[in-house]
Specification:
alpha/beta; Rossmann fold; 8 helices; globular
Amino acid sequence: MRFAGKKVLVTGGGRGIGQAIALAFAREGASVAVNAAHMATAEETAAQAREFKVKAIAIEASVTDEEQVKSMVDRVVRDLGGLDVLVNNAGISQPIMPLLEQSTADWDRVMATNLRGTYVCSKAAAKWMIEQKAGKIVNISSIAGLTGQIYRTAYATSKAAVINLTMVLAVELAKYNINVNAVAPGYVLTDLVKNFVKQGKVKEEAVLHRTPLGRMSTPEDIAFATLFLASEEARNITGVNLPVDAGWTVNGWYM
């Protein structure tokens, strides 16, 4: 029970990676606040978390709206009794298509959720963490932010910015004993990726051919890495972006 007594907020926790992260913290004894854009999905995850005999609350809020985010963090502090860990998981993708076919509206929407959302949530959480002189922030980035992924202009750029934001906040907040790190998922077997495979937008055989360990990640793989970076075992790690991609990013072999 590594997180017994800890209070954790997971944004985008209603499904997929976010849900796996929220449940992993609950399994380790944490009280969990599950945020999602829709209350039904947030409550579904919170209900599963309560099966581990921990306190879990569901919060509907848009991470793009600073006032909603402030209210969300205030509620977490009030209802759970504090905030020790923030996981910025909320994010959206974009239609995979050439630059000239992409809409600027899609760019703005992706940046608002993936980058602005991470920024405003971190800002609101940092207010409380600075006061208690302790805290952990884990951002969910992507290997798309480390590579030039064709047809994913907005998404890849937003995730690259999240990686840099992680480093900036790590340096600024270190004096308050706040660690800020990121986990960069590779290809993860979520419903979104499964749909991309079905649509032919992700070539599963090509992905596995490039992947040294020969497998895609599961949402639980991302959760394991997130828990590590939020734990005291990682107390001297800050500002890192940890790929969890079975070796996809580092593979320079092209055949």
